[in-house]
Amino acid sequence: MITRRRFLNRLVLGGAAAGVAPVVGLGAQVGAGVGGAELLSGGVSFFVVGDTHYRADQGGGLGMDAVSAEYNGRLVEWLNRLPGTAVPEVLGGGVVPRPHGVIHAGDLVDNGDKGPSKHPMAAREMQAFVADWGLNGGEGKLRWPVREVHGNHDSPRGDGPVIAVIKERNQRRAGLSGISKNGLHYSWDWAGVHFVALGLIVGEVPGVARQRRYGALGSLEFLREDLEVAVGGSGRPVVLVHHVDLHRYSEEVPEAVVLRNEWDYADVRGFYEAIKPYRVVATLCGHTHVRRIARWNGSRSTEAVDGIPFLNTDNAGHFGSETQAFLHVEINGAQMRVREFATKDGWETGGWTAQQWSFAV
């Protein structure tokens, strides 16, 4: 069984060759602005971020760690500035469209997994997240709507302040088409594309009684019901959002080691079977702190030439690294185009990675 360390090392080696386009300062012009041009009719544009890890002051107070606050504040500034600016010609040219929103693939904060004694810190971190990111666009510093899921650092089992805040936000989140019975998972539509937010992992399948490492919190049940009602046999494109990556957990392992897996292999298989009848054009995740663009055909292989496009975004605001990135995705007509915007200095500067990915939808 491949370890997480070996897997991540492979991803780093696989992505290092891409390079990053020349960077510009945050206060500099990023190209010719056009006021945030809208996509053509029927298209959708959105950013994908993950692993911001908002971190409270570790000295015992309820302030915020200065590095975490700076990195995440500058991240939001970039997300606000990029729409309407020029895309390099090598990446297709044109301008970055005005986004329908920003999707956050989890690990909003850093201390939600460290037990009840750290819940006050996690609550403070979540307050900082909400102040920066808002909800429906404009309430915080971010200009665009945000759709977030929780990660393992937010709550591995479904308790604590982060889960409570997400549930409360879902009651006020504009434009939702469905909310799960427990108030945590939800779905929405942007420009004819159906999106489903599924939290940390997707599960649990019926008939498997063994304990899971992380709580699925009814996400598989919600997914099945939502797709049947909202999509059915229409053939509408679907995008799915969860925190943990897929490929490592797409293979059966011995019962003796199953709890070490973050996502039970039976639940991964159940997830794949649930979405096979639908036109899933992407599954989005974070967690690995390394970007990976691949396909997923239900197997462990990251070299599959068929299957669902798998967009694993890099960490976007983690206090422990000056190297960060996020994705920009456009789905227009019969094509999905993915680009990456990155920094090597904690978002003081940023630039487009010199690579893009295209998928037929």
Task: Offer a few descriptive terms.
single chain, 361 residues, alpha/beta, seven-stranded mixed β-sheet, 6 helices, 22% helix
List the helices and strands and how they pair.
Layout: H1 4-15, E1 24-25, E2 44-49, H2 66-81, E3 101-104, H3 119-133, E4 146-148, H4 161-172, E5 176-179, E6 186-190, E7 193-197, H5 219-230, E8 237-241, H6 265-275, E9 279-285, E10 292-296, E11 308-312, E12 324-332, E13 335-343, E14 349-360
Parallel strand pairs: 2-3, 3-4, 7-8, 8-9, 9-11
Antiparallel strand pairs: 1-14, 2-12, 5-6, 6-7, 10-11, 12-13, 13-14
Helix pairs in contact: 5-6
Give a quick precis of the structure.
The protein contains six helices and 14 strands. It has 361 residues and is α/β, with parallel strands linked by helices.
- Report the span from N to C terminus: 33 Å
Q: Any idea what the radius of gyration is?
A: 19 Å
Q: Return the structural class.
A: alpha/beta
Provide the CATH architecture: 4-Layer Sandwich
Catalogue the unreliable spans: 1-40
Strand content: 15-25%
CATH class: Alpha Beta
Largest sheet: 7 strands, mixed
Query: What is the average of the pLDDT values?
Result: 89
Which topology does CATH recognise? Answer: Purple Acid Phosphatase, chain A, domain 2
The CATH fourth-level homologous superfamily:
Metallo-dependent phosphatases
> How many individual β-strands?
14
Strand order of the largest sheet: 1-14-13-12-2-3-4
The succession of helices and strands, N to C, reads HEEHEHEHEEEHEHEEEEEE
Question: Judging from the principal axes of the Cα atoms, what is the shape?
Answer: globular
Number of domains: 1
How many alpha or pi helices? 6
| Helix amount | 10-25%
